[in-house]
Structures are given as structure tokens and as C-alpha cells.
Design goal:
The protein is α/β, with parallel strands linked by helices. It has one domain (about 1-230): Rossmann fold (3-Layer(aba) Sandwich). Helices cover about 30% and strands about 20% of the residues. It is built from 6 helices and 9 strands. The chain has helices at about 10-30, 45-50, 80-85, 105-120, 180, 195-205; strands at about 1-5, 35-40, 60-65, 65-70, 135, 160-165, 170-175, 185-190, 225-230. Helix 6 (about 195-205) links the parallel strand 8 and strand 9. It is globular, with a radius of gyration of 17 Å.
Length: about 240
């Protein structure tokens, strides 16, 4: 695990983009293919706009979602819609390389469909793709993707349907599980804002309590985990970057 602190969100986003570009180049050279997992939220949006302006190998890139709400793809709460408007509509990625969670289905059906998509688009012999980079956030309760406090820790399927109530907004969701996320070559946590300071300190400096702080479940088995935090989110940390 590596922690980097930034004075501004713009600085954080610029660094994240550089890391993704480098990891993409490595994956393309090593495997001839790139697998990206995207998330929703306010912090990834400027990162997606920055990536859209770069000459990345989109024809060889497959895009997945770390999690999705069970809403139609044109709903304002859709993580797919956010990524489409800020990134995918602006780059020459083949439509068949975009593997969205079909949030218009029931949660269980959407999860089953996503597991099928993961399997069918994976490299030969794998149950799911090995992610080149997974872009994740973290909530003030320590959740990441749609892995929330109290959710089962023994999920073995690549994706699962969950029901969560965050910030008073109950929602049915589909999430990638640690089985997939922990196989990533690079995990980028983007954490901004003072409301995340307590959770960030607990996750990085507190005891290992993954049932309470689900972000602690993400421990890359063979890759890197980078925590990128702005000044406000990092304000309670005692460790230095």
C-alpha cells in the first residue's frame, strides 16, 4: 500500500491519470489488452475527462464497472451514464468492449448477467478479466464499490447483488467483489473531502476490521494499491506519504 497526499483535487487527478497511463502502457506491452474498472462519484468525473483527452489504446481497452445502481442506463444515478458522458462518448472505444452492468434488470438478474459478461470477456481460461486498473472511491462509512459495512466477507462470485443505504439513499446495487478487485494490477483509491477523514484514518491506521471498514478488504494479491487523498481527507492521518 502506498499513500500520496495532494494539496488540491486537480493535483490528485493529474497524478491518477499519469499512473493509469503508465499501467495501461505496461498492460498493452505485456498482454496486448487493457481492462479498466470505473466507479461513480464526483472525484472520478474530472479524471475521466482528463483520460478522454489522452491518446490511450481504446481499441484494445475493455471497460467494466466496480459497481452500479440498479437503475436504467440513462438515469442520473447511473455510474455508466457518468462514464459515458465524461469519457466513453469522447473516445473511439468499440461498443463491444464496454461491459456495463444492466441496471435496468432486477439486482439478481443484473448480477448474474454481469458474471456472465465477466466470464465471456475474460482472457482464456479465466473466470473474470484481470483488471489493469481499478478506480475506486471510499465513502465516509469506509465502503468501497458497493461493499458496505456488515456485508458478507466470504463472497466468492465475481459480482454480487446488494442492498445498501448510504447517506439516506437506499438503493439496490451490483458490485464487483474482492475476488476480482484483489487481482488488479493497480488499484487507485481516490479519496477527497473532510467527510472522509475519519474513515480514511481508520482504514489505513486502525486495526484490521474489514467487516466494519470494507475498504480494508482490498489488498491487491499481485499488484499495487495506491491511496490518493487530498488535504482535507488526509487531515487526520499521522503517516506520511
Amino acid at each position: 500500500m502506498t499513500l500520496k497526499k495532494f494539496a488540491t483535487v486537480d493535483d490528485l487527478v493529474a497524478f491518477a491519470a499519469q499512473e493509469i497511463v503508465a499501467q495501461v502502457a505496461h498492460a498493452l506491452a505485456a498482454h496486448g489488452r487493457v481492462n479498466l474498472a470505473l466507479s461513480g462519484g464526483s472525484t472520478p468525473a474530472p479524471l475521466y475527462r482528463r483520460l478522454a483527452a489522452l491518446a490511450l489504446p481504446w481499441a484494445q481497452t475493455h471497460v467494466y464497472w466496480a459497481d452500479e445502481r440498479c437503475v436504467p442506463p440513462d438515469d442520473d444515478g447511473s455510474n455508466y451514464k457518468l462514464a459515458r458522458e465524461t469519457l466513453l462518448d469522447h473516445v473511439p472505444i468499440p461498443p463491444e468492449n464496454v461491459h456495463r452492468v444492466r441496471g435496468e434488470l432486477s439486482p439478481e438478474a443484473a448480477a448474474q448477467d454481469y458474471v456472465k459478461q465477466l466470464r465471456e470477456s475474460a482472457e482464456h481460461g479465466r473466470a473474470f478479466p484481470r483488471l489493469t486498473a481499478a478506480i475506486l472511491g471510499m465513502g465516509s462509512d469506509g465502503h468501497t464499490a458497493s461493499l458496505f459495512p456488515g456485508s458478507p466477507v466470504d463472497i466468492t462470485e465475481p459480482a454480487a447483488a446488494v442492498t445498501a443505504d448510504y447517506d439516506g439513499r437506499p438503493a439496490k446495487r451490483v458490485t464487483l467483489t474482492p475476488a476480482v478487485l484483489n487481482e488488479s494490477e493497480l488499484v487507485l483509491f481516490l479519496v477527497t473531502g473532510a467527510s472522509k477523514a475519519g474513515a480514511l484514518t481508520a482504514v489505513l491506521e486502525g486495526p484490521h476490521l474489514p467487516q466494519k471498514w470494507p475498504a480494508q478488504r482490498i489488498q491487491a494479491n499481485h499488484g499495487r494499491v495506491l491511496w490518493l487523498a487530498d488535504q482535507a481527507a488526509a487531515s487526520q492521518l499521522t503517516i506520511n506519504d
